[in-house]
Amino acid sequence: MAEALFYFLGGLALVFAVGVVRARMPLFSVLSLLGSFFCLAAIYLLCGFPFLAATQLLVYAGAIMVLFLFVIMLLNLGDAAEIERHAGPTLSGRRLLVAGVSAGVLGLVGLFAADLGGASFADEPAVQGRALDDLDHLATVLFSRYALPFEAASLLLLATMVGVIVLAKRQRGARVEAVRARETAELAVPQESAP
Amino acid sequence: MNVPTEHLLVLAALLFALGVLGFLARRNVIIVLASIELMLNAANLSFLAASRHWARASLAEQGHWDQGPIFAIFVILVAAAEAAVGLALVIALYRLKQTVALDTASELKG
Lengths: 195, 110
Hints:
The structure holds two protein chains of two kinds. Chain A is mainly alpha-helical. Chain A is 77% helix and 0% strand. In chain A, helix 1 packs antiparallel against helix 2 and helix 2 packs antiparallel against helix 3. Chain B is built from three helices and no strands.
């Protein structure tokens, strides 16, 4: 039963992933991504990682997805005609060929690497019905052996916060620069054409 | 659940390949960012599959099988940071070019 559920969810995750790549509008792409996240969260749960499944739902399906949707709504990218004007046709010949070959090679490498010499997983008594990401254990490990990466991660989040605020707040300066660049470009053209 | 580890890794590889395809083939910045998230998710899945593989009773003494969830947490953290910075860059790009097509941002080509 659980096995059938896993294969169903895995297939669904792949279908949603194809939807992410193929969608014409970014809104549908992001919503497909949301479906893929949900399927993966269920797979984590089936594999015995309930905490990771909850984190996946909270951080990915909650925070990151809201961020994506917020940007799409903010930039008014939902309109199909706008998208056509902005990003042109979805997939073009040579680019699609290069991307397909790269993705195919990487996928094949992954498929070959996945062959662990037939060491398949069979449920053993010690593993069955036990959460592999037991919070007590996880917290002990995280704050002892991985204390330094944990602190580095907090630093990374701080730097991200500062960087995002700087990037998003540079409104007036950027606009002035853009206007100035346009003016200089307009000034430069007649000067070249005059003589 | 009695699924072989290989099948989990195959699923992760296929998801990663689809992410690479979207990353290389699409021109819309938002879809490119979504493809990156897909790739990070595939990496997470393979971390957890490996952790589950090594947590078996007969193998658990050989290594730190609990590294899998820890690394997955760090990957989720980095993905959140990356999404925030990436979307801020999208907003900055849109402000500058009035578009989200990647081809238009070609100033650094020289």
